[in-house]
Amino acid sequence: MLSLAYWWLDNGPHEIFGTAMFGLLAFHLYANRRWFLKLRIGSYNARRWAVAVVHTWLAINIALLLVTSLLISRSLPSFTQFSDNVSVIELHWFSANWVAMIIAVHAGNHWTRVMTTTGTVFRLSPSRIRTGVLRLVAASFVVLGAWSFAVLGVSTKLMFGYSLDFWDFTASVTPFFAHWTAVIAAVAVLSHYGMVLLRPTGRIHIQSTKGDT
Prior knowledge:
Layout: H1 6-9, H2 11-31, H3 33-37, H4 46-72, H5 86-109, H6 111-121, H7 128-152, H8 154-158, H9 174-198
Helix pairs in contact: 4-5, 5-9, 7-9
């Protein structure tokens, strides 16, 4: 979200946050490198295909974001020629917005793991009340996210259409991050429950043998 606030941070901080993001991405890929080795193992159901498509689209947009970042960077050494080509700049912004959306989808895909880890760290026992409250919060984020999606004009940005709808940071700053938080949270919630619907529901039948006791 900090990287998306270009007109508030200006170029220098924008490139610093962008570089930090790519550094964290590299660490994330290294920490989860075994996942790539399992792509050819096992069969693919609807849920696994959906995850594969999401990761493929994320990889494409990350690659576009990285290449366009290098082409339009104002901070790299002189041997890298700065490009002020409007098409390259637009592609950079479009891929950045897609990356934000797909990262939200990615977070939603793994939200069960996040909640399990959180419960373990804080030693939380199962609670129907807490679960109900959190589900109400999630539903609220979906509603707020739909509104923020329209306020930020995200649909235009994701359709690779040219938009002059830039946030006026001279008027307000905090609402920009609040709206993006709502959008990302809403996409993550919808992604999580979408994956729940795609989860296999068939029962596992265990056949007994004569030697069983």
